[in-house]
Amino acid sequence: MTGGPLSQSIVDKPKKPKCGFGVTYLAQDNSSDTLVSVKCIDKSRVLEDNWEPLPDSLHLERIDNDAAPAGRLPREIALLLRLDHPNIPHVIAVYHNATFFQMVVPSHEPAFDLFRFIDENPAVEEPIASHIFRQFRQLLQ
C-alpha cells in the first residue's frame, strides 16, 4: 500500500481493521519525529459520486512511476483539505499510486473515527449525540 516517502515510516499495524474505503496506519514522520496517521484509501472502493476535482493548489506526489496523475480526489480528502477546525485533523500531505491515496494527518491519540463510532454504536445516548452535533454546528459556522 505504501512506497516512496512512506515506505520506511510505518511503525505499527493498522490502527483499525480494514473497513470502508481503506485502512489507517500509525506512522513516524521522519522529518519531525512525531507520530502521524496514514489513511490508505482504496481508489476502487470509492463510489463514483464521492469524487471531487483535484484543486489547482494541491500537488499530489506519486509514490510509484506507473501511476497516472489523479485528476480527482475522494470527497473525504477534498473536504478535510478545506476544513479548519480544532477538532478535525489537518491534512499534512497526500500521496497516491495506481491503487491508493495515502492521506497523512497528525495522530491524535486517543481518538476515534466518527464513522466507526456510529457504526459500532447505532443507538447513542442523547448527550453524546448532542455533543457531536454541536461540533458539526461549530464547524459549519
Automatic annotation (TrEMBL):
Alphabetical UniProt keywords: ATP-binding, Nucleotide-binding
- GO biological process terms held by the UniProt record: intracellular signal transduction; negative regulation of glycogen biosynthetic process
**Residue ranges occupied by any Protein kinase domain in the UniProt entry:** 10-141
Q: Name one GO cellular component term.
A: cytosol
Protein name per its UniProtKB record: Protein kinase domain-containing protein
Query: Its Gene Ontology molecular function terms?
Result: ATP binding; protein serine/threonine kinase activity
InterPro entries assigned to the protein according to its UniProt record, in alphabetical order: Kinase-like_dom_sf, Prot_kinase_dom
